[in-house]
Amino acid sequence: MTVTTPEGFRAAGVAAGLKTSGGPDVALVVNEGPDTAVAGVFTTNRVKAAPVLWSQQVVQGGRVRAVVLNSGGANACTGPAGFQDTHATAEHTAAALTSANAYQVGAGEVAVCSTGLIGERLPMDRLLPGVAAAVESLGDHGGVAAEAIMTTDTRPKTTVVSGAGWTVGGMAKGAGMLAPGMATMLCVLTTDAVAGPATLDAVLRAATRVTFDRVDSDGCMSTNDTVLLLASGASGVTPSEAELTSAVTAACHDLARQLLADAEGATKEIAIEVVGAADEDDAVEVGRSVARNNLVKTALFGNDPNWGRILAAVGTTAAAFEPDAVDVAVNGVWVCRAGAAAEDRSKVDLSGRDVTIRIDLHAGTAEATVWTNDLSHAYVHENSAYST
Questions:
Q1: Which SS3 state, helix, strand or coil, does residue 221 take?
Q2: Digit-coded pLDDT (tens) for 4-43
Q3: pLDDT in tens, 240-291
Q4: What is the distance between the terminal CA atoms of the chain, rounded to a whole angstrom?
Q5: pTM
């Protein structure tokens, strides 16, 4: 159930001393080939971490042999020196892999990902020896690699989806700053299918558009969001683009739901289903507006089906709809019909963790689902002292 389940991949996770906990904090995923095709999507935040800027350049080449990831520091807002640290990490990884294996690896074939506190340089005197240790311990260690990229996560997140003679594997981290634009936090996907960079790019963008891009936990977009899809071609099987898209989308959906389930302080997992929209963009805009509304999120934390707050959030969007035509259901109870009170809100059962809000705009046939969670005391407590 990890990134090493598809043929042609090895991984490692080691403790380099970047985390005060002493746990694993450097991960390495290596594509043994025969192919090394890659695609990636990254944060649309204008403030981008050094590893994002580096990996965007690397992915443009269409070939990646390895991905090195660290927790314990984001290497964001660290200026030219931080970018040089990323470059040095890639060079060190490439040299170590070349020395340990029978093939040549260049720094331009190494993607770099970092996660943790923004604004501080990484301790390179610990990170680089950690990279060397990860190279030495490469094997079927996808589980510890997934553990090594955790920050405020309470558990590692991995997935596997099987095709006809080929497989997709994946790992992800994320529990806060989940409001993605083209990706979410850190995620590495692997497949032993035969596929070129152009196909992988189309597949990954189609998959993230309806999965990671629809998770909006707290309305805060990270500086480090990265999703990479690596193909080894080791199975020798070339699935259709539609087949590969279906499998990668399923893997991303599984990981996205795991991210949501582990969101900081969350007591509710909320699906906001918007139907009857004029187009998909309207449906997503409405869903995201409700997902980011703190009054809605705090009401659900308190088990209060306050549909007026939902309708007010819908009204802040530019979506096409008539206010006196909107219907809202919470966990199957239509508490609002035609923009006014309908069934008794006391019928809504919010005692469980799963919540479904269904909004019918009656403006068309398009629909979309956005996933979020509630806003709890624990979220405020955890994020009030994150850097101290």
A1: strand
A2: 999 999 999 999 999 989 999 999 999 999 999 999 999 9
A3: 999 999 999 999 999 998 988 888 788 999 999 999 999 999 999 999 999 9
A4: 35
A5: 0.92
Dihedral over Cα of 53, 59, 65, 66: its sign: positive
| Rounded-to-integer distance, Cα 134 and Cα 176, Å | 27
**CA atoms of 94 and 85, how far apart (whole Å):** 14
Strand ranges of the sheet holding 9-14, from the earlier edge strand across to the other edge: 9-14, 26-31, 66-70, 110-114
> At 380, is the pLDDT very low, low, confident or very high (cuts 50, 70, 90)?
confident
Buried b (16+ CB within 10 A) or exposed e, 170-202: bbbbbbbbbbbbbbbbbbbbbbbbbbebebbbe
pLDDT digits (tens, 9 = 90+) for 78-97: 999 999 999 999 999 999 99
Catalytic pick from 159, 184, 191, 249?
Answer: 184
3-state secondary structure of 26: strand
200 within 8 A of 79, measured Cβ to Cβ: no
Mark whether 152 is an active-site residue.
no
Give the distance from CA 351 to its chain's centroid.
28
User: In the numeric block, which tokens belong to residue 356?
Assistant: 């479904």
Q: Are 256 and 211 in contact (CB under 8 A)?
A: yes
CA angle 201, 206, 207 (to 5 degrees): 100
Nearest 5°: the CA angle 235, 237, 242 is 125
